[in-house]
Amino acid sequence: MKPFQTLMLAVGLLLGSQAIQAAPYQSVQLDKSTLSFTYRQMGVPMEGRFKKFSAQLNFDPLKPQQAKVSLDIDMTQIDAGSAEADQEAKSKGWFNAAGFPKASFTVQQIKASGPNQYEVSGQLHLKGQTRDVKFPLRHVAQGTQGLLSGEFTIRRGDFAIGEGMWSKFDTIANEVQIRFQLTAQAGQ
Fold this sequence. Notes:
Shape: elongated
Largest sheet: 11 strands, antiparallel
Structural class: mainly beta
Number of strands: 11
Helix content: 10-25%
Order of helices and strands: HEEEEEEHEEEEE
CATH topology: Lipocalin
Radius of gyration: 20 Å
CATH superfamily: Lipid/polyisoprenoid-binding, YceI-like
Mean pLDDT: 89
Distance between the termini: 32 Å
Number of helices: 2
CATH class: Mainly Beta
């Protein structure tokens, strides 16, 4: 192959791969995605995760202002570290999974803030309460997939999580950090 042909082939492959990466993401691979939380109990960091959630996604990294993203979280599928902790977390005083089996997050706006960096504004609906949430979002393209990750902090008192004797923040901190990593798939 002549040098010019090799150069043209390389340019064609590069442009082709950029076109694939530029395709809007239209689904989330849930088996490759995580949604977790961290909090402090008596000063000790504790971790948990939401085992079951669904996501609706239409996100083009080149046109973030047009994004439509929402997550629904099954509150009956909490992993708080042990069977006893799972049952307590689902109880009426904590997440009240029987009364509020689903939490949701809906994006209202995404703005670019730098290369592969975005600022997300949305609403978190949890245990009958709705609060505005803002956080940075990172995007890493991987062929036809992309990793979307971020974290933000909520105050459990804003959502009445931990009622009665747990409403004070001396044993279990008010701040709960939510982390996510979604594996998004470009539309075909």
